[in-house]
Every structure is written in C-alpha cells, then in structure tokens.
Amino acid sequence: MKIYWIKAQAPRRVLALAKHLGLDAEFIESNGKMKTPEYARLNPNMKAPTMVDGDVVLWEASAIMAYLCIKAGSDMWPANNPAEQVEVLRWLSWNDQHWAKAVGDFYFEHIVKATFHIGPPDRDALPDKVPELKRFAAVLDHHLEGREFVACQRLTIADFQLAAMAHYWREAEMPLQEFRQVTRWLDRLAQIPAWADPWPR
C-alpha cells in the first residue's frame, strides 16, 4: 500500500488513522509532485491524499479512511452496522458542509500560510468569520455534552474528520475558549499518540 501525502489537514486524517491502526504502508511525501502527469493519473484533482493498494486507487480522505478501517477490521468505520454508518456519515457530512467551512479560514491564515511559506496571517480577514464559527461550535459543543467522542460512543473516523483543522485551534486563534466541551474533546484526541504525531519520519 502507498499513501501520498503533504503536510495538510486532509492527509493528516489518513496518516493518523493508518498509524493508529498499525497498517503497513509506504508513505510518499508529494510536495511539488502533484502537478505531474504521473500523479494526475492517480488523482485527477492533483491533491493529497491518494492511496494505492494493489489495483485499488482512492482519493478523498473520508473514502480512504473507510477503506483503511475495512482493511484493518476496525469499527472506526462501522462497515457491518448500517445504523452506525449513518451516524458517522451524518458527522462526516456536517463537517464538510458546515464545520470545515467555519474553521477553515482560521486554519488557512495561521497554519497553511506558515506551513507553505505564503505570507503572514491576514488577521483583518477573520473577524467577520467569528459568528459562523461560533454558530457551529455551539452545535458541536451541545452534542458533546456527556460524550467522549462524536459518534457511536467510541473513537471513529468522524472524530478525526472534525478535528483535522480544529486541532490547531490555539495556534490558529480560533475563538473556541467558551466551548468547553469542544476543547475538552480536542484535548482528549491530542492524547492519542497517532493523532498527536501523525507525520511520517
């Protein structure tokens, strides 16, 4: 199995999961290689992550995470439980449609720009984004009351999906201090070794 990655939030989810599950894979850092014809044949979006496992080629982190769980026999993706699948899918979709958009500008300005050396954060662009972030943080905060994880009363790929950008909430100056259930959940995930340090050496 090969997993192509760059140091960004979507590959982070896949790398952390592969490490957490103890999967044997070749991790190929792809900075500067994603615009090549060879890579485009694997992933026409020319983005990361991409996974190749024999004849199976997958892109999109959520699909790759589900595949890795099936391969490892892990119920972090509940392949054999349709009701739990629906619950996980609900949160994967909520992330993509609401949460990722709400936290994404903060993540971009403070983390992406620093990682890829594309200038300082534009803090003046962020105040208008605060109401939307707080709106959806309140939804997640309420949901996490009395819960350790987002779905199925255990760690699932939904946790890794939702935490991918929010993990950096302090460095990215996301105004999440008042949402104590969210920050508690993020701090708990940070205690998982593979999530705290997912990057290949």
Task: Offer a few descriptive terms.
single chain, 201 residues, alpha+beta, Glutaredoxin, Glutathione S-transferase Yfyf (Class Pi), Chain A, domain 2, 2 domains, four-stranded mixed β-sheet, 8 helices, globular, Glutathione-S-Trfase_C-like
Structure description:
The protein has 201 residues and is an alpha+beta fold. It folds into two domains: 2-72, Glutaredoxin (3-Layer(aba) Sandwich), CATH 3.40.30.10; 82-196, Glutathione S-transferase Yfyf (Class Pi), Chain A, domain 2. The protein is built from eight helices and four strands, in the order βαβαββαααααα. It has helices at 9-21, 37-42, 61-72, 82-115, 130-143, 157-166, 180-189, 193-196; strands at residues 2-5, 26-29, 50-53, 56-59. It has a four-stranded mixed sheet, covered by helices on one side. The two termini are 17 Å apart. 37% of the residues are buried.
Helices and strands in order:
Blueprint lengths: L1 E4 L3 H13 L4 E4 L7 H6 L7 E4 L2 E4 L1 H12 L9 H34 L14 H14 L13 H10 L13 H10 L3 H4 L5
Parallel strand pairs: 1-2
Antiparallel strand pairs: 1-3, 3-4
Helix pairs in contact: 1-3, 1-6, 4-5, 4-6
